[in-house]
Every structure is written in structure tokens, then in C-alpha cells.
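Hi W., the zinc ion complex you wanted:
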Amino acid sequence: MAYRYWCGECGFKTPWLSEAQGERQQIEHYAKRHPGIPPGGHVEVNRRNPNGGDGCLRMATMAVLLLLAAASAHRWRLLQTDPRRLRAPGTLPVPRCFGRGA
Ligand SMILES: [Zn+2]
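Structure:
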């Protein structure tokens, strides 16, 4: 989870940080910019890792998707080229009228 603290007195907002880091920056901002005012504003919460873990997760997801795509493509090609699957008994078109003469 990442937290972004918005100042209640001006347009200041912290970067996406952990809850403790964001809170500290918010308090420091208030001490510097709005002395005497108790820290307010609001907190924005994002369900992601503030330490760049999101990119890692996205990479892992991409890799898994690629693997799945490759696996299904491989299976599809097997299905296409396996003669036993293409010409299973009963699926061959039988030319019933062939050679009977007119
Ligand atoms: Zn402010």
C-alpha cells in the first residue's frame, strides 16, 4: 500500500510513500509552511508497493502471460499438425456415392 498525504492548507502533496514516511513528510511540511496549524488535509491510499514493487509485479505478470500464450500456441500447433487428431476415425468425409456409377 502507498500513501499520499495532501496538505489541507495549500496544494502540497507528498510523493507516494509508506504510511509512516508520508505522515512524517506531512508533519514536516506543516512545521515549515504552516507553523502553529495542526496537520490536516487528507490521505490518498493506493494498493501498490511504494518501493517500486509494482513494476516487478507487472513484469512477472507479463512473463506468466507470455508463457501461457506460448504454451497455448504450442498446443494449438500440435492440434493443427497431428494427423491422428485431424483424421480421427469417423471424421473422414466418406465419399458415399463415389464409384457407384450412374
Ligand atoms: Zn501546505
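Residues 2-46 form one domain.

W.
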